Each structure stands twice: as C-alpha cells, then as structure tokens.
Hints:
Elements: E1 16-18, E2 32-36, H1 45-50, H2 69-80, E3 85-91, H3 98-111, E4 115-121, E5 132-134, E6 142-147, H4 155-162, E7 173-180, H5 186-193, E8 199-204, H6 211-226, H7 241-256, H8 265-286, H9 295-308, E9 311-312, H10 313-321, H11 349-359, E10 369-370, H12 377-387, H13 401-409, H14 413-424, H15 430-441, H16 444-449, H17 451-458, H18 465-472, H19 484-501, H20 505-521, H21 525-539, H22 546-562, H23 566-586, H24 588-608, H25 612-632, H26 637-653, H27 657-677, H28 679-699, H29 703-723, H30 725-745, H31 749-769, H32 771-791, H33 795-815, H34 817-837, H35 841-861, H36 863-883, H37 887-905, H38 909-929
Parallel strand pairs: 1-5, 3-7, 3-8, 4-6, 6-7
Antiparallel strand pairs: 2-4, 9-10
Helix pairs in contact: 2-3, 4-5, 4-31, 5-31, 6-7, 7-8, 9-11, 9-13, 10-11, 12-14, 14-17, 17-19, 18-19, 19-20, 20-21, 20-22, 21-22, 22-23, 23-24, 24-25, 24-26, 25-26, 26-27, 26-28, 27-28, 28-29, 28-30, 29-30, 30-31, 30-32, 31-32, 32-33, 32-34, 33-34, 34-35, 34-36, 35-36, 36-37, 36-38, 37-38
Amino acid sequence: MSxxxxxxxxxxxxxxxxxxxxxxxxxxxxxxxxxxxxxxPAADPEWLRxxxxxMLNSRFEVVPFTGRDAELAGLRAWRDQGPRLAVRWMHxxxxxxxxxxxxxxxxxxxxxxxxxxxATNGPGSVQxxxxxxxxxxxxxxxxxxxxxxxxxxxLTHLTWLFSNALLHRPGVRARVLLLARTADxxxxxxxxxxxxxxxxxxxxxxxxxxxxxxxRAAHDAFAVRYGVTAAxxxxxxxxxxxxxxxxxxxxxxxxxxxxxxxxxxAGLTVYLLDREHxxxxxxxxxxxxxxxxPPQAMNRAVFxxxxxxxxxxxxxxxxxxxxxxxxxxxxxPGLGTGGPAESTPAPSPGRVLDDHAFCYPAAEPQxxxxxxxxxxxxxxxxxxxxxxxxxxxxxxxxxxxxEVTTRLLGPHAxxxxxxxxxxxxxxxxxxxxxxxxxxxxxxxxxLTAGGAALSTLAALDDIPVRLLSAxxxxxxxxxxxDLDAGIAAVTRRIVTELLALDDGPTARATGYHHLSTRLSxxxxxxxxxxxxxxxxxxxxxxxxxxxxxxxxxxRLGNCLALTGRPEEAVAATEEAAALFRRLAEAEPARWDGMxxxxxxxxxxxxxxxxxxxEALALGERSVACWRRIVAADPVHEEHLAGALxxxxxxxSALGRWAEAADANAEAMLIWLRLxxxxxxxxxxxxxxxxxxxxxxxxxxxxxxxxxxxxxxxxTVLRALARVNxxxxxxxxxxxxxSLGADLAEAGRLPEAVDATAEAVAIRRRLASxxxxxxxxxxxxxxxxxxxxxxxMGRPAEAxxxxxxxxxxxxxxxxxxxxxxxxxxxxxxxxxGMCLEAAGRRAEGLAATRxxxxxxRAAHDxxxxxxAFDLARVLGNLGRFLxxxxxxxxxxxxxxxxxxxxxxxxxxxxxxYETLLGHLRRTRDGCLRMLGRPAAR
Length: 936
C-alpha cells in the first residue's frame, strides 16, 4: 500500500513527514527538520579545481574514505548489537574527520536496508519549500538518524527529537549518531535518554594511527582531479585529518601551477585563501557581465557569510546592504569594492548575492538560501581570523573587518561567537583585539550564542577571568536546560582561575559551593557532589562561621539526595538543621526562617525514604515556626503558605486526606490573597495549591469538585508556561496528570488520554535535564496513561506504556524500596490488566500477584494510605483467577478485599462505593460457580 502526502502553504511554514512526528513552536515553525539521507553529489572536476577549498568539503568526498576502518567497524557493531534504541555521542575537534566517518557509516547503513535520515535544528535555519519526507520504516532493517553539530542544539530540542515516533516503532531497531566537537554537553543529553530505555555511549575520535597512509591517499586523489602525476613525498607531522588533507591538496595544487608549497599549517591556510582571492579577481576581470562584483566587495561578502552562515534571501540582502561601501564621494549607492579612490560602480546587494552564490552554491538549493559560507568550518574560522587585523601572517587584514564583525555579531551571535571563539583557539590576536572587547561591551551575546559557545569560550587560554565574570553576571539565577552545560564550564573556569589567586578556605568554600550548584544543573551530579564535599571541607576550616557551615551542609544534602543517597542526605541536612536551630535560639528574628526552611527540606528527604511519619513531624514544626514568624511580621506569610502546602503533602502520604485538604485550603487562601496584590509572583503558588486540593478532594470521593479545581489549575499554568516554560512546565505536568485522573473518574476517557499524554511529553523533556527530580513523576504519568488507553480499547498502546512505567519504577524501587514500593505496585497492577487484555493471562496473574505483595507491605507500614489500593488489587487478582476458572482460589483474595474495604469505607464511604460494588459482584459470581449460596 502506497502512502502519499501533499503539502502546501498559504502562509507560514509547510513541511511534512510520513512515518515520523513534526514538533513545532507556537508560530508553526519546526523545532527541527528531518530529511532522508542523501549521498555526496557528483561534482564537476573542472568546477572543483576553480577553488581548491571545494575539494576539502566533505560533501563532495573527493578523498576516498581511508584510515578509519576500526572506528567504522565499531559503529557497525554498535548498530547491530545492544538494545532496540541506542544513542552515541561521537566527538572530536573540527577537522578530525567525524563528518566523513558518519557519512561513510550512513551510506553503508542505507545500502544494508536501513532507513537513514539527517536532523537539522530548526531555529535559525532556512525552511525547505513545501514538501514531504517519506520516513516510513516498513520493510527496513532499522532506522539511523544522524545529527551534526549536536553540541550546538538546545537540550530541549534534542529531547523533542529523541521522543519522535520515528525512533519508537515496536520491533524496529533505532540508532541516533550525534556529532559534536566536545563532550561537554553529553552528560545532560545522556540523562535525557535514561527514561527511554536507550543504550548510550560516548566515542572520542582520536588522531589517525596511520597519518602517512591518509596523506598518501589524499595526495593521490587530488592528483587525479588535477590530472597530474603525484610525486611521492613524506607526510607532514599533522595529527588532524583536515590538516593532512590541506597539506596534500596544497602540494598537488602547487605542483600543478609551478609554485612552492608552504611549510607550515598557517601557510597552508593562507595558500588556500589566496586561491579564493585569485578566483574572485579572475571572474571579475572577465568583464563579460556574467559576474560583476569586484574582488574587494566579494571579500566582504565572504567574510559576512562566515559570520552569518546560510540565510534566506531577504536576510542576506539586508546583511550585504549593511556591509559598507568604502566608495569615494559621489559614487553611486550600493556595495563598493572597499579599495582606495574607487570609481567602479558598486553592484547592488542582489547582484552581490548572485555572484556569491556563483562562487559558493547553496548546499541545498531547494531551500533558496544565500551566503553559503566557506567550507570546511575550520577554513572559515581561519578566514575570519586572518581578515581581522592583528596577526603576523603573510595575509592582508582588512580595516573594515572589525566594524562588520561588530555589526553582525548581535543578530547572528549563535554562529558568529562560536566561530570566532573556535578561531581564537589558534589565532592569539583574535580574542584580545576583537572578540573579547565585543563581549565586554555586551556580555549577554555569549548567552545568546548558546551553551556550546560558552563552553568554547571557557576553554580559551587567554580569555580574561574578568570577562567571564561579566558573562556570569548575566546567567539566570536558576537552571536553564539549554545553557546549563556551558554555564557549568564557565563557572568551573572562573572558580579555577580565582582559586589560583586565592586558595584560602573562604574562597574555596564559596567557589566550590557555587560550582556545585552549576554542575548539578548541568546534570554532572557526581562532579557536583565532589564540589559540595570540597566546599564543606573548606568551610570546616572556618568553624566560627556557623551560618556558612550550615549552608554548605545543606548543599551537600541536596547533592546526596540527587545522586540517590537519601540516607546520607538526611544526615547532612539534619546536621545543617541542628546548626540553624541553635542560631535561631540565639537570634530567632534572624535565623528562624532558615531553620524552618531546612526542616521542610529534611521532610522531603525523609519522604523519599518512605519515612512519612517523621516527615509529618518536621512539617508540623516548620508550620509552627512560620506561624510565630508571621505573627511578628506578616511579610513572611508566603513562607507559611509553603510550609502548609508541604504539610498537606505529608498528611496525604499518610492517608489523612481530610486534614491534608484543610492544610492545603489554608495555604490556598493565603496565596489567593497574595496573588491579588502581586499576580505575577503568586499565580504559580495558587495553581499548585489548586492541584493539591483537587487531589485531596478526589481521594475523599469528591470527584466533581476535584475536576473543577484541576481544570482551573491547568488553565492558569498553561498561561504561565507560555511565558516561561522552564519555570512552570513541571507544575503544568502535575496539573495535567491530576486532570487526566479526574476526567477518567468522570467517564471522559478520550479527554483523560489527551491530558495525560501531554503530561507524559512534558515530563520526558523535564527528565532530560534532571532525571533524579522527574523520573518519579514521569512514571506516574506513563502508568496512568496505560490505564486510560486500556479503557479506551487500545490494548497494544496500553501494554507498551505499562511496560515502560514498570521499567521506570523498577529502577527507582531498586535504588530505594520504601518510597517507591506503592508506585511500583500501581504500575504492576496496570501491567497485569494490560497483559490480561492481550491474552497473556499467566503473565498478567504474575504481575498482579507481585502488585498484591508490594501493596500488602505498603499497607502494613501505612494502613490508612493504602487500604483502598490493596483492596482494589486483591479484587483484580480474584477476578483474573475467576476468569481462569479457579473459583475457589479466586474467592480468598476477593473476600479479603471485601473485609478490608468494608472496614475502611466507614471513614470515607464515597471513595469506596464503586469498589465495594465490584468486589461483591465478583464474590457472588464465584460462590454461584461453586454452587454455594450468595452472601447476604
């Protein structure tokens, strides 16, 4: 059966795929683009010889693939072995050959029957014309997705990509190959994959073991293109693949033109750039009207293209128009040559763009882009450095280049800062004379450039710590998932530099404390923990500063909790709380608030361990403390509301729903009052309290009231998330999960599925940035989705979701049994129902029996909280046994469930009414099949 899709656009964007998802922003523009893999195009040898640099472009594959057989074999093994979904981060400096290796691997994989596609980040890229990509996987052995420049993608965009249906076809192997210059962003990316059950691996591409062989192969290939006989010569001592290719190319080109090749790498770059200038001049000198841009003007356009990258034509026209003319007075308007005493009429921006495209055709002409930059990237970086004044190389710097750089850096910061920073690693004049002053004038440009640029800047040997500190002042106070890796790199560099100047205990305590926070945000949790330990060790050298010591202990407690060590987290936080308690006893007005806040943190860590009774005691103390503080100064009322909110959570964990609702209602009233005065500050608090109150009411069987509150919470949080997704999406996911449950109880399953599926998508993204914080919530949403899909008559999808939920919660249970026992029981209960629906009754019974065991253990520890769930899953076990004809065996769990439910219903009759009806019908059916009278 063939599938056809027609895509047209009357306004905005038109882009379609078959067999995959499209993720878009609010304006309809794609977050990323997926396209079928295309092999290197055949290129005219004469056209290649016009500009030798064209032969270095990996797109044309002039040099046969050589010297990476071991790495290619490793990629094949990664593709063919391991789990269904696997992701590999392959990194190396620019010019090391990773793009060529990936292309060779992609070509071979396509030949072997796989669907191969490439992903391009959407923002900043030019959209393709209306059309569609067929990415179906039917009849394919698997799917391979290649992502170049992955370290420059925002993490949130990669997370969306990883969730694409293309990678999650049941039974279809999927591989994602991410190409990057460094491994800085990999820890956070790897964390984003944990919940997808994906295999992950990191591959550093080392120098070629046989550089001489690579050089000979390149030399021979270029000689064939030039039609000359390659004279044998020794390979230069370069480890970089691109450097070897450049040396071979220049050697052959110099031989063909009777020139002497340069002896060093800088000379090779200058030689190739000289050939660019020669080409521009030759075309202009023809004077036949087909090419009208003077070489000096083309120099400016090529420089601009290196800063902007390929852009749409309207943007390109604006860029060229702003390059400056440099004409003598009285000359016609337009782009001039930039030479002295200029009299040649300047071509229009449109003509310059056309002539530039003649020299540098668009890589994908169907997109209609202009200003295609020099390739490879390293040559473009060197061209920028050599055009800007201050170097000692035998190459003419241009006086206009600093002004053009200043003008283009802001609008095109992501590429421009990244390329200038990369070039500054090799050209020592570039940073101090050009890049650093520009960033000092506007440090925010470094953030606009993105996380990869921040990491590159942090690695520059000569960058002033004063400049990095100015950039740091613009960092968001809290986490920013798309910048966190770069922020951590900058922070580490600043702390390292400052501690080299002053390694006293105060400097170490402060620096490592700050570094710990930033590393934690970047997903580098083990490093964050180590920094927290170093901070505490330094602070312990200053025992007289008790507040700072307590703060360091609190930071360590947070890191221990995030690295899955809640017992140690409790110990550290208890010590911190004890210190603040003593401080508060001496100066209550100054320290009571810090002590009360730490009590709440300690309650959270205890809850993680399932020690809900102790958490409740701390919550009550925190509330009491804040009540005293507020009585003296009502300005702290919001903190009382927060403590009441936490108290409600602790009470609900113990099954004390009515008391939980009372505590939360008091918190909600405070926040509503505060929100009247300052909506922007307190609307999120109101929304959170609405969600909690809905949950507490639902647990008491007050479903209609709960549904209304859940709806209100989602409405508020949607509006807030549109303004600041990073801050409010976590709460929106919680609200959507609650809304889904309330809709399902109201019998509105299609709406429940929609709300819960949205919550799952959000929580997948959140877990990518902080797995420890969000995997539990993701497990809840996925487990609920499985149950609702089963109710909708979609058993295959329900089973897949149920299996994922169990996998998520098994991992959490293995790490900490007590706090995750009931959650795993819930997911196993859902899995049992899905397996039963799939006709796999034996497996369904096994899952349900284990759910009973886990719920029984949870009930023994906390009867009020888990009586309903234990009765429900006992009923399921009885029903499945009855369906299998084991009437006597079925009767025992059903009767036990009835006794438990009838005893518990006295305190909460509306919550148990439906369950009791189901249990009584199952019991009576079993008795009837056994020939016994029905119970009365």
